Amino acid sequence: MKKEITIFFTAMLFFTRIPCPKWIDHSSSNMQKSTKYFSLVGIIVGFFGALTYWSSSYILPQNIAILLSYIATIWITGAFHEDGFADVCDGFGGGWTKDKILAIMKDSLVGTYGIVGLICLFTLKFFTLSEINSQLLIVLIAGHSVSRCIASFILYLYPYARTDESSKSKAVASSFKLSYLIVNIIIGILPLLFFKTYWVFLALIPPFLAMLLLGRFFNKWIGGQTGDCVGATQQISEVVFYLSLLGLWKFI
After folding, report:
1. CB pairs under 8 A, 24+ apart, for 199-205?
2. What whole-number distance in Å separates Cα of residue 136 and Cα of residue 204?
3. Which of 27, 41, 136, 143 has the smallest C-beta neighbourhood within 10 Å, fewest atoms?
4. What backbone torsions phi and psi does residue 26 show, to the nearest 5 degrees?
C-alpha cells in the first residue's frame, strides 16, 4: 500500500503543482509506474476546475466562471499539457524531418505555430463549454479524466521516439504496460457514470478516433511518440470530448 501511495504522489508531483510529501522523489522506477494514475490525476485536476467554476458562478457570469475554471486547471498543472500541445504545433508545423521535428519540440521557445494553435485551442474550448448548460460540473471533471485516459493509449500503442537520454519525460513516455492502460481506462470513465444517461459513452468514440489519427500521424513522421505528443493528444481529446457531448445532447 505504501508503495502505491508513493507511486500516486509521484504522478501528482510530475503532472501537477499540488504539494506532495518531501519524501517523494523522481526515481525512474516510480516515474514509469506513475502513468497508471494518469486518469486519476485528471479527475483531481478536473475537480479543482469544477470547484473553481462552481464557487465563482455564484457571483460572476457563467462565461467568466468558465474562464476562471480553465485558468485554475492551467495553474494547477503548470500548463504541462498545453505546453506539449504548443511544442507539437511548432515541431510538426516547422519541421520536415524526424530530427528537425524533435529538435524544435525540445526547444523551450514557443513559435508562431504554437501560439496560433493555443489561441485556436483555447477559443474552441471556451465557446464549447459556454454552450454546455447541463451538468457542466461533471463535464469538466469527465473532460480531464477521459482525455487522459485516451492519451494513455498513445503511450501504450507507440514506442518512444527519442533516442537521447536527456529527456525528462522518457521515464513516463516509455515502458507503458497493458495493466497501466487498463487502470487508466477504469478510472478515466468513472465520471461518466454520474451522467443521467448512458448514451454519454458514445461521446468517447470521437476522441478515441482522434487519438488514432494523431498516433498514426506521429508514428509516420517521428516513428512513435514523445511526452509532448501525449500532452497534445490529451488537449485535443479533451476538446473533442466536449464537442462530442455538445453534439450528442442535440439528439438525446
Report:
1. 199/248, 199/252, 200/245, 200/248, 202/244, 202/248, 203/241, 203/244, 203/245, 203/248, 204/146, 204/150, 204/241, 204/244, 205/244
2. 17
3. 27
4. -105, 40
- pTM to 2 decimals? 0.93
Q: List the one residue out of 112, 96, 116 whose CA is nearest residue 220.
A: 96
Of 56, 62, 12, 59, which Cα lies nearest the Cα of 34? Answer: 12
Domain count along the chain = 1
Residue 143 CB contacts under 8 Å (≥ 6 apart), including other chains: 46, 238, 241, 242
Separation in Å, CA 117 to CA 124, 158, 240 = 11, 24, 15
* CA–CA gap between residue 57 and residue 153 (Å, rounded): 35
For residue 10, what are the domain limits?
2-248
Q: Which residue has the higher pLDDT, 59 or 251?
A: 59
Q: Please state, in angstroms and rounded to a whole number, the distance separating the CA atoms of residues 242 and 164.
A: 36
- Distance from the Cα of residue 65 to its chain's centroid: 21
Q: Locate 5 and state its grid cell.
A: 501511495
211 CB neighbour count, 10 Å cutoff:
23
pLDDT digits (tens, 9 = 90+) for 43-98: 999 999 999 999 999 999 999 999 999 999 999 999 999 999 999 999 999 999 99
Span 104-162, pLDDT tens digits: 999 888 999 999 999 999 999 999 999 997 799 999 999 999 999 999 999 999 999 98
Give residue-wise pLDDT tens across range 165-218: 555 565 565 568 899 999 999 999 999 999 988 899 999 999 999 999 999 999
